[in-house]
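I keep forgetting this: the sequence line spells out the residues, with the fold written below as integer tokens. I include a record here:
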Amino acid sequence: MKNSVEEPDNVQGEFEKALRRLSEKLDHFHCPICHAEDGITFIDDPFFVMHYDWDKTQEPWPLSQEGYGKSCVMGICNNCGYTMMFNVGVVCPPYKRLVVHRTREIIASITEETIAKKKKKSK
């Protein structure tokens, strides 16, 4: 049966496509830690994993003020709780193109959408 869900044509829609594709790909998930086949639960809020280089021009090395990051989907094993991060750009290539060209706008957009979503949930 074909999925009839239509994701919105925006950053949130691309993230939702990544969630759906991961769910489909990991239908028969085996946890790499506990080897259970109890499935995986995806968190439907985006995570942004940052990387910062060391500033090697000073002693001791502080973290550089500049970094880069990747948008990720978090998955949790339903048996042992092992937590996995999946790169959204790999799972949903159109999202990767957006990230490469408009990282700051996407981060701001995701932040606004997440805040609005949490406000709706708290009401």
Summary: The beta strands are 40-42, 47-54, 63-77, 83-87. The first strand starts at residue 40 and ends at 42. Confidence is low (pLDDT under 50) at residues 1-5, 97-102.
